[in-house]
Design a protein that fits this description.
alpha+beta, Aminopeptidase, 6 helices, 7 strands
């Protein structure tokens, strides 16, 4: 464990920290972003945090993706929202969040929260009844945004069938 002695407040007033670059915008992905999405996701695929998806899948599902784009055009984060129709007569559609990743150098800067907030707003705009996701990590960001662990059987069946039990992912959900 590393401990540090806090600096007196007066000393901090003379310290100028270099600001982190702002993300210019969160926008909908385009098919042309497929290669950048593959590259952004690659470290998370290697670590086992994300499933491998070929570039053609990113291109075909570009409309599902929100991306965080830096002023220089580099993509630093993405999150996809897939919509699943209600499975019972009159049931409300549900959303599934997937392929959530933020470049390592932007983690801890609020970029993930910004992407998740944009996805929540999109889900509300589409009048979805609930959102689901699966995570092999802690899920802290999702939990802070009102998600809670649920049984996979509560999720859209088509999506729940694709979950690989060997990955040990937890399913989280949030009502909208």
């Amino acid at each position: 464990m590393i401990t540090a002695t806090p600096h007196p407040a007066a000393a901090l007033t003379h310290t100028r920290l270099a600001p982190l670059p702002d993300v210019a915008r969160v926008r909908r992905a385009r098919p042309a972003d497929a290669a950048a999405l593959v590259a952004l996701s690659a470290p998370f695929v290697r670590s086992g945090e994300l499933r491998r998806r070929p570039g053609r899948v990113y291109a075909a599902r570009a409309a599902d993706f929100l991306v965080a784009e830096e002023p220089d055009g580099a993509l630093r984060g993405c999150l996809a929202l897939g919509v699943h129709p209600g499975e019972d007569h009159g049931a409300t559609a549900a959303g599934v969040l997937y392929n959530f990743c933020v470049a390592r150098q932007r983690q801890g800067t609020g970029l993930g929260a910004r992407l998740l907030g944009a996805a929540l707003a999109e889900a509300r705009a589409q009048s979805l009844g609930a959102l689901f996701t699966a995570t092999t990590g802690s899920g802290r960001l999702f939990l802070r945004h009102g998600f809670a662990p649920v049984r996979p059987g509560l999720a859209p069946r088509a999506w729940a069938r694709t979950l690989d039990p060997r990955r040990g992912a937890r399913v989280l959900a949030r009502a909208l």
